[in-house]
Amino acid sequence: MNNIGQLLAQAKAANHAGDWSSLINYLQQLILVCKDEADRECLLELALSALEMGDFQQRWDIAKVLISLGNITINPLIEILQDEDAEDELRWFAARILGEFPHPDVINPLVGFLQTNQDEELKAIAASSLGQMGTVAIPQLTELLKDEQTRLLAVRSLAYIRSKETITPLLTVVQDSQVAVRTAALEALSSFHDERVAPVLLQALDDLAAPVRRAAIVGLSYRLELCTELDLIAKIKPHLYDFNIEVCCATAVALARMGDDAAQHLFTVLVSPHTPITLQLEIIRALSWLESLIGLEYLQQALNQLTSATLWQEIITLLGRVQKPELKTAAAEIILQMVQAGHPATKINSIKSAIALALGQLSYSQATELLNQMQQDPDEFVRLHAIAALNKLG
Fold it and tell me: What predicted TM-score, i.e. pTM, was given to this entire model?
């Protein structure tokens, strides 16, 4: 008996014994060497047995074998998908594996499954599989957009397909009555630098639903080439005062992507006594993401104008994380000046620890004297951070 014959015999024995792990191991070896059609049909039968009877991990492993067997796997998987008596997890795997076959025979069963199944997880994996199939599935997914029950899943499926052919069908639902559909459509469209997309995103800035406004802001933040032409900073900045805090935070991030011209707007909101601390923290991060001298200057002003220990500590922490070599000295000097001025933050142990840590991360040798003093601090953690910083300075 040749090696293939021995492995087949061992695989059949493992199947008969219900030893799915061993069966999968044998099949993983056989799939590499079996080319004969009859042998591969046998492998398919054994692999389907492991898929039907194995646990989740075993099903995950055998899925790779079924994919490797090619199109002969399609019909048996469709039968499992359409079997309403089969367990949900098995049907989930069938839908997932079918997505690996960009074959016309796969599309209609997945579409039908989406239309008739009530389980959200099963519908989601079917939608994902359709999206994974690429442009071949676009016509059927476009049809699903016409049905309110399947519209959201169809949009999400189209989002998986990174092709400009999806833009036209997605544009048909950007004003849909369902908030989730509008949001998902905008998120999908935002990945395309197409002239039809920006006007839709701009219009969505005034949508009544916060998730839609947020999606529009995030989408526009990736269109920096249009920043001047469309005056994006002016159009986005009012949402720093949005009624929804998540929209405000997304606006802060978006403005940071647009560079130093947005810094003044961020700072104004940061130091306002009416700004929630959640948004203040996001703006502090946004100013640090500018990675510019202007951003650091505004953080220094914020240190002197804000009164929250939480915000002070966040600023110092982010100053310590400055990466650009040309900005490290400026960041370290802001911290040293704060200490020399006797800023009230320097009386708080957790902030003193943050100061030591930041100066060490910035490798600022002129901080050695201060760090030596901090080694004598009454607080143990301050001393430990000072020692660690000195070690970084060598």
Answer: 0.83
Secondary-structure class of domain 330-394 per CATH: mainly alpha
- For residue 343, the model assigns a pLDDT of 96
pLDDT of the residue at 239: 98
| Predicted pLDDT of residue 296 | 97
Categorise residue 259: left if φ over 0, alpha if ψ from -120 to 50, beta otherwise: left
Q: Which helix (H) or strand (E) holds 353?
A: helix 349-361
User: What pLDDT digit, counting tens, does each position of 189-199 carry?
Assistant: 999 999 999 99
State the helix-helix crossing angle for 56-68 and 88-98, rounded to 10 degrees. Answer: 30
Is the per-residue pLDDT at 1 higher than 60?
no
What beta strand segments (E) does 146-291 contain? none
H or E segment to which residue 268 belongs: helix 263-270
Mean pLDDT (whole number) for 245-251: 98
Helices 309-319 and 325-340 pack at an angle, to 10 degrees, of 140
Tokens of 213: 């406004």
In whole angstroms, what is the distance from residue 100 CA to residue 157 CA? 14
340: region left, alpha or beta (phi > 0 left; psi from -120 to 50 alpha): alpha
Report domain extents, the chain: 330-394
In Å, how far are 55, 77, 121, 226, 321 from 80, measured between CA atoms? 16, 5, 16, 49, 53
When pLDDT is cut at 50, 70 and 90, the band that residue 2 belongs to is low
Please say whether the beta carbons of 145 and 173 come within 8 A: yes
Tokens of 249: 């935070």
131 falls in which pLDDT band (50, 70, 90)? Answer: confident
Say if CB 188 and CB 158 are below 8 A apart: yes
Scanning 83-189, the segments in alpha helix (DSSP H) are 88-98, 104-116, 120-132, 138-144, 151-160, 167-171, 179-189
- pLDDT for 17 equals 94
Q: Do the beta carbons of residue 363 and residue 393 sit within 8 Å?
A: yes
Residue 103: per-residue pLDDT: 86
The span from the CA of 152 to the CA of 363, in Å, is 51
